[in-house]
Amino acid sequence: xxxxxxxxxxxxxxxxxxxxxxxxxxxxxxxxxxxxxxxxxxxxxxxxxxxxxxxxxxxxxxxxxxxxxxxxxxxxxxxxxxxxxxxxxxxxxxxxxxxxxxxxxxxxxxxxxxxxxxxxxxxxxxx
Length: 127
Known about the structure:
Helix content: 10-25%
Mean pLDDT: 82
Low-confidence stretches: 26-31
Strand order of the largest sheet: 2-1-6
């Protein structure tokens, strides 16, 4: 898929939406694109080819991502937002199908990469 403004990308930072892509000419040997993603600049075409891209964020959600799902978005009171983690692809599909049918709403997602990159690991004494 071609990178373009508005598509979603998933990399080792997590999932983000492409804000802007601008041609930068011959400034860098490995690149013809300037990609603003996750507040960082990525200039390597090889790196961009390794990113997963989709027009639909649901395509980029994987097992072990933490999803915030509104199970009753049409109740008139804001619904019931519940965190969910699917361990398998089959379990993930059970969560995604009602979202695709517009019965539930995806409110947010923390990818496993986002969790691992931001988690503070507690070390215990081994006495």
